[in-house]
Structures are given as C-alpha cells and as structure tokens.
C-alpha cells in the first residue's frame, strides 16, 4: 500500500536556504512546495488544503516567520497546521517567543537530514 508523502510548505526569502531545506526534505520522500515569503505562504494556504507542516524562516522582509506563525495560529482554517521556525540566529528570547506563540520547534539553520524525523513527528 502506497502512503502519500506528507506535504511541507517551505517559506524562506533566501534562495540557498530554500534549496537546502527542499533537498533535505525531498531526500526523505516529502512533497515540498516553496514560497519566498509569508504573504505568498498565506495566499498558497488559502487555496491549498493538504499542507501538513509549515517550515519557515524567521528573518524575512516585510513579515517575519513569527508574524506568519501568529497569522496561522489565529486562523480557524490553518491553526491545526504545525509550524517550525528556522533561523541562522541563536537568540534564546526569540526562540522562546516563537515557542510561546505555538511554534513546534525553532531550528538553527541549516536543516539537516537528522532533523527530518523529529520535524515529521509534529504532523
């Protein structure tokens, strides 16, 4: 019996970081959609219903990953989707703020293959 690969939405404004996250997830047989920012993510989520997890960068222009997290958690349609925040910065206060707002985890970039099973456990 074939199991459907979980669909993960990657949100990152940096091409290299999008590429790394996408390759790591795809190597683990995960269906990936990539968008460049929170606004595009919200537009995509408005029409797409099978996203099982959002993996988002924290630092992006206009709207941060924290802002996206808050929008998702305040939406009756989206609040069930787990959100994992990625960042290059190891800032404990920021990490705690994201976790307090409902993020499942705060990962220091780059994401690695060893992180994937733990991330998928949130689905």
UniProtKB/TrEMBL annotation:
It comes from the Eukaryota. GO terms for biological process: cytokinin-activated signaling pathway; phosphorelay signal transduction system. InterPro entries: ARR-like, CheY-like_superfamily, Sig_transdc_resp-reg_receiver. Pfam families: Response_reg. SUPFAM superfamilies: CheY-like. Transmembrane segments: none annotated. Residues 7-123 form the Response regulatory domain. The modification 4-aspartylphosphate is found at residue 57. The lineage of its organism: Eukaryota, Viridiplantae, Streptophyta, Embryophyta, Tracheophyta. This is Response regulatory domain-containing protein. Keywords: Phosphoprotein, Two-component regulatory system.
């Amino acid at each position: 019996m074939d199991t459907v690969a979980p669909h993960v939405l990657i949100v990152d404004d940096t091409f290299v970081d999008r590429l790394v996250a996408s390759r790591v997830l795809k190597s683990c047989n995960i269906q990936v959609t990539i968008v460049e920012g929170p606004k595009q993510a919200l537009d995509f989520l408005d029409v797409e219903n099978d996203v099982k997890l959002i993996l988002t960068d924290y630092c992006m222009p206009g709207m941060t990953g924290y802002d996206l997290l808050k929008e998702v958690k305040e939406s009756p349609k989206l609040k069930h989707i787990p959100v994992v925040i990625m960042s290059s910065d190891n800032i404990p206060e920021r990490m705690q703020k994201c976790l307090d707002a409902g993020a499942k985890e705060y990962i220091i970039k780059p994401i690695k293959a060893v992180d994937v099973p733990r991330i998928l456990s949130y689905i």
